[in-house]
Amino acid sequence: MSAVPGGSESREGLFSALKNLLATLLAIGKTRAELLVTEVEEEKLRLMSMWAKAIGAAFMLSVGLILVVCSLAVAFWEHRLIVFGVSAGLFLLTGIVLVASLRREAAQPSKLFRASLAELEADMAMLRQRKDSQ
Questions:
Q1: Which pLDDT tens digit goes with each residue over 65-81?
Q2: Phi-psi region for residue 6, left (φ > 0), alpha (ψ -120 to 50) or beta?
Q3: Angle (CA) 121 112 59, round 5°
């Protein structure tokens, strides 16, 4: 007996192809979700670093200003002025360096989701290429 076109063999082939397509789409989706999670974690670490620098800068500038006031208050004591002045200078310098670092880091654009978007663009280009070749 000959095989009837559109019989059970072609249905099995169609279902197998659909299963493979679904498995491929799920694998792509899983990979993209993992990439998104990684990017969110990287952004979280960047923001935590910026907050730590901001808090450090605020603390150092505050202590520096207090030491400047103390230096002015004891300006006529023997060598205490030099000690307070140098301490104030060091705290202020540290605060200024942290503020400059914070500004540099804040000026850089966020890289959140760039890798994911690039991968999605590559996937779309590959799908377009396959569509055009058929």
A1: 888 878 877 876 887 77
A2: left
A3: 170
| Cβ–Cβ < 8 Å for 87, 67 | yes
DSSP label of 110: P
**Higher-confidence position of 85 and 99:** 99
Q: For residue 113, give Cα distances in angstroms to 25, 44, 61, 121.
A: 20, 13, 35, 12
Does residue 85 contact residue 71 with C-beta atoms inside 8 Å? yes
Identify residue 1 by its one-letter amino acid code.
M
Concatenate the DSSP letters of all residues of 1-68 into one string. -PPPTTSHHHHHHHHHHHHHHHHHHHHHHHHHHHHHHHHHHHHHHHHHHHHHHHHHHHHHHHHHHHHH
